[in-house]
Amino acid sequence: MSIRFTAKARRGMVALTAAAGLALGVAGCGGGGDNDDKSSPSASASKDSGSKPSAQEGQSGTPLAELKGTNGLLLQITSAARDSGGFLTLNGIVKNDGDKSVVVPPQTSGDETEVIKHGPSLGGATIVDAKGKKRYYTLRDTEGRPLTTTGLGNLEAGQTLPVFMQFPAPPTSTTEVDLQVPTFSSAPIKISG
């Protein structure tokens, strides 16, 4: 019985720590009183346009790649941009193209214990630079959380979810990589930037 109590107490402390971290993060993102005029356009832009992956969802045109998954899931990549910090960020959407509710398979998180313990994600995604003969895994933060969309779960029929994945950028001479996500087909992607 004391083991159960200890486990419940530990879960409670983890939840309390996570809530405190989120509260500090939200407080840190708030604008100060001195330069509200300068920060309000970006704050209202964030409110209106949502996160970066959501903005990609509304783009018109054909996606860079479509990866077919199990049970009618479809992963569409809408952008693959290299930035000056040495990262490659892929944005897109996961869509339930089927006629029934479906759960995003847990295999998309990969099989690394450190990534799995942070919940369902796209942490198992990799990009392959065939020219340079290298495979790149999703980046992780200092606590082992993957730099991808997390909290994946159930998608209703026709529902879409904006997603992102961040990798170390291959050399600038590499302009195309193959994206591989567990339970999805692989597809080539052209890199911009």
From TrEMBL:
Residues 40-55 have a biased composition (Low complexity). InterPro entries: TAT_signal. The keyword Signal applies. Transmembrane segments: none annotated. Residues 30-66 are annotated as: Disordered. The keyword Nucleus does not apply. Keywords: Signal. Residues 1-20 form the signal peptide. This is Secreted protein. It comes from Streptomyces purpurascens.
